[in-house]
Amino acid sequence: MAKKKNGNNEGSIRKRKNGQWEGRYTIGYDSRGKQKQVSVYGKTRAEVAKKINEKVSAIQNGTYIVPRDITLSEWLNIWLTSYAYIKVRPSTYASYQAYIDRHVSPLIGGLKLQKLTTNQLQVFFNEKRMNGRIDGKGGLSPKTIRNMYNMLHEALQQAVINKIVSVNASEGVVLPSKEEKEIIVFKPEEQRAIIEAARKDRLGFAIELDFFTGLRLGELCALKWSDIDLAAKEFRVRRTLQRVQKKSSDIKAKGKRTQIVEGAPKTKKGNRVIPLTDSMLQKLLVHRARQLFEKQRLGRAYSDNGYVFANEFGGLIEPNYLRKVYMRILEDAKVPFHHFHTIRHTFATRAIENEMPVKVVSEILGHSSVQLTMDLYCHPSVSAKRNVLEKMENL
Fold it and tell me: For residue 287, what are the CA distances in angstroms to 199, 228, 334?
């Protein structure tokens, strides 16, 4: 008998040649959005349908007990959809999905979870450090390796909690040392040139505002007029915009691989209040007047979504689009390219140079800790060192 598709989460059920009934339910999806299924058996169709409904319900509420011969890939997909999904940010979820599909599954995903060893994981991470890039141009960075390890460690720890395995095989893995990256900032003359060039662009005020607030790119794109208190001369950072990879199941259902997601700021302290100087406030009002003129001119064609930095029809501005605007402004200013985050680094560095208290800088940036701010920015510049040495000579 051919298998039948059923509703109510019954999955696929068929009667085998030996008279036994077989049903299948989905426990995850591979990198192409193809279902990964597990079979259950029974003497009657109703018995199998009941078992499938119980399994599907358990997967949805996080109480599913996996088969003992489950592979690492199968467990990671269950963990991702049942445990990680409810607590991580969409961008983090997308990163985890990519780690599983592009890195873990092709090399060690077929290993049985209960037989996974520390040495197998060590060999895997060593290989990724040497030759892990998808484009074949070398190895993954220590930071990426650590991010992937953290995901695996958490997933395997959940397997320990669920009593699927007795030990977490990732515990003994040795990771590469962290790389200390140099913080790049724009020179004062470069900053002035960029701001001057930005004033010629319709969205240029976004770049200028960022030099004096240090917002992340996604936070800047997500800023709404409802976040701004003109009387108090301040605004609140409440959300961020990001384009992220969809879940594999959503890709299969809807076709598109990515989507724009409005989410919470990166850290708990990312939800913060930032004051506006009188100068920035006046420029913000000019920007608002220009936007209202566009709205009036377009009439019904304009859909006001409340964004401070919107497209010509009132819709959101994607981070990648604003990144292109920024690159265009750099070219116009004849300033060498540095990534968008350099504006944030520049704000923090100028603030420290002008003796703003580190705690204040940290709160404006929305860092998770003051120590992070100190580690990143509290390093004297060459000119500051020279001034101290000159003072010592004068002594």
Answer: 11, 13, 25
Q: How far apart are CA 41 and CA 45, in angstroms?
A: 9
Give the pLDDT confidence score for residue 10 in this predicted structure.
46
Spatial separation of the C-alpha atoms in residues 352 and 355, rounded to whole Å: 5
Q: How far is residue 112's CA from residue 165's CA, in Å, rounded to a whole number?
A: 11
Closest CA to 34 of 105, 87, 88, 86: 105
Closest CA to 78 of 89, 65, 68: 65
Single-letter amino acid, residue 308: V
Q: Is 79 left (phi over 0), alpha (psi -120 to 50) or beta?
A: alpha
Among residues 168, 261, 274, which one has the least CA distance to residue 221? 261
- C-alpha of 318 from chain center: 15
CB neighbour list of residue 154: distance below 8 Å, 6 or more residues apart? 79, 84
C-alpha to C-alpha distances, 151 to 50, 122, 125, 296, 353, nearest whole angstrom: 34, 15, 13, 49, 38
Nearest-Å Rg of the Cα atoms of the chain is 27
Backbone phi, psi, residue 21, to 5°: -95, 140
Q: Which CATH architecture has domain 188-385?
A: Orthogonal Bundle (1.10)
The CATH H-level superfamily of 65-179 is Tyrosine recombinase, N-terminal domain (1.10.150.130)
Contact criterion met (CB below 8 Å) for 149 and 170 = yes
The pair phi, psi for residue 15, each rounded to 5°, is: -100, 125
Q: What are phi and psi of 103, to 5 degrees?
A: -120, -55
Q: How confident is the model at residue 381 (pLDDT cuts 50, 70, 90)?
A: low
Query: CB of 131 within 8 A of CB of 119?
Result: no
Q: Strand, coil or helix: what is 39?
A: strand
pTM of the full predicted structure? 0.70
Active site residues: 216, 254, 341, 344, 367, 377
Question: Mean pLDDT throughout 225-238?
Answer: 96
| Residue % of the chain over a pLDDT of 70 | 89
| Greatest C-alpha distance within the chain | 99
